[in-house]
Amino acid sequence: MAQHDTPRPTQARLWTSLALAGAVGGLAATGAQADTAGFGHGPETLWLAAGEGGEGGEGGEGGSAEMSIEDLDAAYLTNLGLIEGHLRAGIALYRDGHADLAATHMKHPEDEIYADLAPELEERGAEAFSAELSALADAVTSGAPVEDAQAAFDTLLERIAAARTMVSEPGAILESLEQVLRIAGDEYEIGVIEGEISNLHEYQDAMGFTEMARVRAEELASGDDAAHAKTGAAVIEALDATAPAFAAGFVPEGALGAEAKASLLHAAAARIELAALQAE
Question: Residue 196 in 3-state DSSP?
Fold first, then answer.
């Protein structure tokens, strides 16, 4: 079983001229093009910095397209979700004694996503959390006690949660969860091939992103709004169906089996999309 603990080299940013709604449908194909060209760390790099348009990018796409406010909000929440998903993977690994594996997940949010997200945080009036990202990464890389790393993680979650409150539109929230699951599916396709781990880091990313989506869905399901609670429950049900993909945990031992398929994550994303349409 080949396990590659180190993710692929990262491009600072990969611009796309597609509107976000169009990008959702083309994530897998565009991600494959990016890898072929030697760009990026999987599909995550496709999410343009919200509000900065679609400059003619290194992927060869020229021009730009209008993005709706809801699409911009969804992109913002998606990037926050990706950061949180990385961190959830990292802290779970650290708690389980896999400090080296944890460290890679703690560094990627700042290296790959946060730099482009920072201007959006400022524009929306959200508090920056670069210092908290660094504090958590430092705690992990320095071998701090688990309780100290957990405390740094909890503080960071509070900052991310505060940034998330800048968007309250349910449609944007659900769209972001759908997008995160689609990205998780694309990452899983890289991390698992024919039931075998081919890239451990990407598999762990997919698991962290899925866990993040579940936490958000549980928040919706436990809210006071009956309609939102119903939608949240539908999202949880969709996520429950992804369980076979991650039955072996963050550090699998041996093959995952025939049931471990990226299609489970893509199907969950489609079900979330349907739940969002039914909620309108």
Answer: strand
What pLDDT, on the 0 to 100 scale, is given for residue 158? 98
Q: Are 5 and 201 in contact (CB under 8 A)?
A: yes
Neighbours of 123 (CB within 10 A): 12
User: Cα dist. 93→97, 255, 276 in Å?
Assistant: 6, 19, 32
CB 247 within 8 A of CB 260: yes
Place of tokens 């006071």: 224
The closest of 205, 216, 91, 89 to 155, measured between CA atoms, is 91
Does residue 117 surpass a pLDDT of 60? yes
The shares of helix, strand and coil residues in the chain, as percent rounded to the nearest 5, are: 65, 0, 30
Per-residue pLDDT, 37: 30
Residue 192 β-bridge partners: 197
Compute φ and ψ for 235, nearest 5 degrees: -65, -40
Q: What is the DSSP string of 130-165?
A: HHHHHHHHHHHHTT--HHHHHHHHHHHHHHHHHHHT
Is residue 157 within 8 A of residue 192, CB to CB? The reply is no
Tokens standing for residue 51: 């509000």
